[in-house]
Design goal:
Length: 316
């Protein structure tokens, strides 16, 4: 009984971390709008470098050097952490490319498809079982995504890359079970040298923003480390405590907030087909969340958590 209570508490804490992470990601476009004069690839390079610096300070402040050394000493975990860094960088680059090339709708579609990929990986790889209401939620979400895909008119390759890369990133984070702060330092470290080299080349050629931009833009670029690292920390802690499938469905919070910004702040076009699709997705999110917190009668959450924990223990 004590174990069950603790697992339920951990699940609730994980859901709260997930909500916080996806809410921050949802309002992130407001921050990127402050740097419209800076090329997207340069923003990405600064984002990586400043995230690494910020995470180093966090690890030092929380005295996580021991956890950092433990990961470095484990070659298998170190390889998977580096793989996480590469995958999340591909995700960031694809998103920036999509925005710069006029495929914003397709990129947003990717983050709606992602939870379906997450649930698929959760069931097939982590052996997480799904209850009746959770299956209903998946069907509703699938219908919503299908409506957007049909309306779009072709295979959404950008959306698929975004969906699959972020799902794989979350799966690896779920399986390796390392300290979230130490893990993030190493994730950013693996791609930091390339980002730093790119920034140096731009600055040497007189095209970098550190030389030509205003102090306000420079401060905003430095702030990308903080606004990148904090939601990643929340995400890492959330995925340690709740099911992989639950974290996948919470992802709908971010694009829903982005939808609100797009309609009411940025005044973007929102057709009826998108509204219908969102209604299916929001209904799915509500059902899946209520099932996991116990309002709808499901008895699989504790079993999923314990089962997933047993699988992770066997792996390492």
């Amino acid at each position: 009984m004590k174990l069950s209570i603790n697992v339920k508490d951990e699940n609730t804490t994980g859901i709260c971390y997930g909500i916080a992470a996806y809410s921050l990601w949802g309002i992130l476009p407001l921050y990127w709008k402050l740097m419209e004069s800076v090329p997207a690839l340069e923003i990405l390079a600064h984002r990586i470098c400043w995230s690494f610096i910020f995470m180093l300070l966090v690890v030092y402040f929380y005295r996580k050097r021991g956890a950092l050394s433990a990961i470095i000493a484990n070659r298998k975990k170190l390889f998977l952490i580096f793989l996480c860094g590469f995958i999340v960088s591909v995700n960031w680059f694809t998103y920036i490319y999509a925005v710069n090339s006029g495929h914003v709708i397709e990129s947003s579609m990717g983050y709606f498809i992602n939870p379906l990929v997450v649930v698929l990986l959760g069931v097939t790889v982590l052996r997480e079982s799904l209850g009746r209401w959770q299956l209903v939620a998946i069907i509703l979400a699938f219908v919503g995504v299908l409506i957007i895909t049909i309306q779009y008119g072709r295979i959404p390759w950008i959306a698929l890359i975004l969906a699959v890369t972020f799902a794989l990133y979350g799966l690896i984070k779920k399986m390796i079970h390392v300290d979230s702060l130490a893990g993030l330092v190493l994730e950013t470290f693996i791609v930091m040298p390339m980002a730093l080299t790119y920034i140096a080349i731009l600055e040497k050629g007189g095209k970098g923003s550190l030389v030509s931009s205003s102090p306000a833009v420079i401060v905003t670029l430095a702030g990308t480390g903080v606004i990148t690292a904090i939601p990643l920390i929340f995400y890492a802690r959330g995925i340690e405590r709740t099911t992989f499938s639950m974290m996948g469905f919470l992802q709908y919070i971010a694009p829903s907030l982005q939808l609100f910004l797009g309609i009411f702040i940025f005044k973007e076009y929102f057709p009826l087909s998108h509204f219908i699709s969102f209604c299916f997705i929001w209904a799915a999110l509500a059902i899946f969340t209520l099932a996991n917190v116990g309002v709808l009668k499901e008895h699989s959450v504790v079993g999923q958590k314990i089962k997933a924990a047993e699988i992770e223990t066997k792996k390492f």
